[in-house]
Design brief:
This protein is mostly beta strands and 567 residues long. The protein folds into five domains: 161 residues, Leucine-rich repeat, LRR (right-handed beta-alpha superhelix) (Alpha-Beta Horseshoe); 122 residues, Ribonuclease Inhibitor (Leucine-rich repeat, LRR (right-handed beta-alpha superhelix), Alpha-Beta Horseshoe), CATH 3.80.10.10; 77 residues; 112 residues, Ribonuclease Inhibitor (Leucine-rich repeat, LRR (right-handed beta-alpha superhelix), Alpha-Beta Horseshoe); 34 residues, no CATH class. It is 6% helix and 31% strand. It is built from five helices and 45 strands. It has a seven-stranded mixed beta sheet with strand order 10-11-12-14-16-18-20, with no helix packed on it.
Length: 567
């Protein structure tokens, strides 16, 4: 090796003098004589700077709240400037009785329970990377305890704990028969330890870096939401010895392309593979006695229930004769399905069955349909028509819109349409009838309509014009009829002389822009859905008022123009 020159030696020395080499952060140790006093032990100027903390003694919900703030999440789950990465609670006792987290949207308060890791205890602690659990805990109560901790890579516990053990940063029950929690910050492929009988509820939930998992033959049960929101999980093989796959077990695994279901699976919960938008291959062992797959579509063995239609399966689909039920979220998040035809045998369509089918254009239902769930076509932004068999005794289709058989209640609106005039004779708008119709720009409510049920226009986020013809405002029966509409831009047009009536009526008084409109004569919206969109004088100047004397030129919604004379 050639010896360094003097200049080279000087440069090297300069490098080591100027470059700060990484070193382990100093651990701060705090001992609590009384629970609830952690905030008195750590000064405000250090609170968000400490990266490594060890706590001794007894702590309660107030202390946990303080630790949450240090680790990046406050009492309400809002992000803080906290940088706490390593937390050692090995020598603490949890004292129950005080709250540590508040879910405002659900009005739920989570209170510490003695010697237990409670639900949402470390929710959204984004800086947290490692945690040592209290040595005396008796239970990790809920898989949501560490949800949305994207940096958490290791959970450990004293080997003397009677209930749990940690293996390579993963939490198991003491016997090693249950995988309890897999840190959400871990990534790559993980082989579940042989001997595990049960993968606990939400054990892997939210592990966005998990690319694969090997499930051993010892596993009998995959519990509810066990792998939910594992965005990078590409494939899964459920071995023959597995008997139960819980509700939403693999829901929202957006990269999941293939699923193989073994011979022993006898129970698959609702939405187990829902919203897996990249799913192409879904195969069931021919020896399975409870389920089957036909062209990668999952059915029960009898073929009476359609459970899951792969998210990447494209084109037109005719549901096989004999299917009686389309399960909840069965087609949800499919990106290539264009049309669906249901046989006469189908009687029930589950909640959100076609949720988010972005290319779905038309649906034809058979005469047997008697039950339709909520939000069936939510976010189906290209859906133009819902057809119903003429012999159906419960429903009928009017110009591609679904009504009850008598035509008095609008039941389900195709969410891809932009404008709609509800026909005369309609007395009510059903629950969630227009919900999630994000392309809807304007709707006209006819005279005589007296009731609008809960969530009727829920999250019609682009709805900008509502023409309400009745002098007496329709009753808003229930709640959230107009939730998700931008009330600052949406204009509610009401009959002349009824402005104050609408402004003081429950459900309608939330609108910020209410204008009077002459629904009789020249302003009347036609039954064919053609209505005035703008008005001009003979000089081509747009008129703001609709009572300007002389010739008015009306621009109609179908692109035509009309001339009227106002004396």
């Amino acid at each position: 090796m050639k010896p360094l020159s003097l200049s080279g030696l000087i440069m090297m020395l300069s490098f080591f003098l100027t470059v700060k080499l990484p070193c382990k952060a100093e651990q701060i140790i705090v001992t609590l004589d009384d629970p609830g006093t952690l905030s008195q032990k750590i000064s405000p100027d250090k609170k968000f700077q400490i990266t490594d903390l060890k706590v001794n003694g007894s702590l309660n919900g107030i202390d946990i709240r303080f630790i949450r703030e240090m680790a990046g999440s406050d009492y309400y789950g809002n992000e803080t400037d906290g940088k706490l990465a390593a937390l050692d609670l090995g020598n603490v006792n949890i004292i129950g009785g005080d709250p540590y987290y508040m879910n405002e949207s659900q009005a739920l308060m989570y209170i510490a329970v003695s010697d237990k890791i409670g639900p949402y205890m470390f929710y959204a602690c984004k800086s947290l990377q490692t945690i040592v659990l209290p040595s005396g805990i008796t239970a990790v109560e809920d898989g949501y305890s560490f949800i949305d901790c994207p940096g958490l890579i290791s959970v450990s516990i004293d080997p003397a704990n009677q209930y749990y053990k940690a293996v390579d940063g993963v939490l198991y029950n003491k016997e090693g028969t249950e995988l309890t929690y897999f840190p959400t910050g871990k990534s790559g492929h993980y082989p579940v330890a042989n001997g595990v009988d049960r993968i606990a509820a939400r054990a892997f939930a939210g592990c966005k870096g998990l690319t694969g998992v090997t499930i051993p033959n010892s596993v009998r049960e995959i519990e509810e939401s066990a792998f939910m929101e594992c965005y990078a999980l590409a494939s899964i093989t459920i071995p023959d010895n597995v008997q139960t796959v819980g509700k939403t077990a693999f829901s929202m695994c957006f990269s999941l392309a293939s699923v193989t279901i073994g011979a022993g699976v006898s129970s698959i919960g609702e939405e187990a593979f829902s919203m897996c938008s990249e799913l192409e291959s879904l195969t069931v062992s021919e020896s399975n006695a409870a389920y089957k797959s036909v062209n990668d579509v999952l059915f029960n063995k009898q073929g009476t229930v359609l459970l899951c239609f792969p998210g990447k399966k494209a084109g037109n689909y005719v549901i096989p004769e004999g299917v009686e039920e389309i399960a909840t979220y069965a087609f949800a998040s499919n990106t290539g399905l264009v049309s669906v035809i249901m046989p006469q045998s189908v009687t029930s369509v589950g909640n959100a069955a076609f949720w988010g089918c972005s290319d779905l254009n038309s649906v034809t239902m058979g005469n047997g349909v008697s039950t339709i769930g909520q939000y069936v076509f939510g976010y189906c932004n290209n859906l133009q028509r819902i057809e119903m068999g003429e012999g159906n005794v419960s429903y009928k289709s009017i110009d591609g819109v679904l009504f009850n058989k008598s035509g008095t209640e609008l039941t389900l609106f195709p969410t891809g349409r932009t404008e709609y005039v509800i026909p005369d004779g309609t007395l009510s708008v059903g629950m969630s009838a227009f919900a999630y119709a994000q392309h809807l720009l304007s709707v006209t409510i006819p005279d005589g309509l007296h009731t609008i049920y809960s969530g009727a226009f829920l999250y019609c986020s682009n709805l900008s014009k509502i023409y309400s013809v009745p002098s007496t405002p329709p009753v808003c029966n229930g709640y959230l009829q107009f939730m998700g509409i931008d009330l600052s831009t949406c204009v509610l047009y009401v009959p002349k002389g009824e402005l104050n009536t609408y402004k003081t009526t429950a459900g309608w008084n939330i609108f910020q822009n209410i204008e009077e409109y002459n629904f009789s004569g020249t302003d009347k919206i036609s039954a064919d859905g053609i209505y005035e969109v703008a008005r001009y004088n003979t000089l081509g100047q747009r008129l703001k008022e609709k009572t300007v004397k002389g010739i008015n030129i009306l621009q109609m919604s179908d692109g035509t123009t009309r001339k009227i004379f106002i004396p």
